[in-house]
Write a structure and sequence with these properties.
It comes from Schwartzia succinivorans DSM 10502. By secondary structure, the protein is α+β, with helices and mostly antiparallel strands. It contains 9 helices and 10 strands.
Length: 215
Amino acid sequence: MFVRNRMSKDPVNVTPETSIDDALALLKVHKIRRLPVEESGKLVGIITDKDLMRVMPSDATTLSKFEINDLLAKIKIKDIMAKSVISVNEGAPIEEAALLMSRNHISGLPVISNDGAIVGVITETDIFDAFVDIMDLEEGKVRLTLEVDDKIGVVKDIATIFTETGNNIDSFVTCPKTGGKYDIIIRGNFEDVDGLTTKLTEHGYTVIQASHIGH
């Protein structure tokens, strides 16, 4: 799954010369939290609702409404935008976008094409939705969590057990732990969970949990 498959396309953009007042209006009308800044068809910055609110006069200001409006009209996006922008290519795996957001503690990324044009925005909500789809959570599956040793042949051995018991694996995820151990999370439509658990235990695998998640 790639970024282009989950991003919001044709995002609302501003230019460096856009006024603060106009940018605030765009955020309100489109109910969004960030605006990529575009110049000559390229991504040159980004502005967020927090950036805009920081330059707004406080409630304690002695300025008149006319003076406030005049001040906001003079401040341009280029004066407060972040110029060092973290972005992601539309052809990148969605995991790369998730990693960038996690490392940089941000909730959204502008998406660019190979020539640097803004083609979309991907947010943490898009990542969460992708996770739900990848794990097929809406369908309602049995989730088995196994603790295994980090050694060659474990995945093949477990897959053989499922095959021999007539169980099809829908998703298979490994999560490293300390002490040379791994958690393996397996989801599927497993009818005889007790029998499958017994078979896995007989082969030396510890079944930590068996549960049903989703509809």
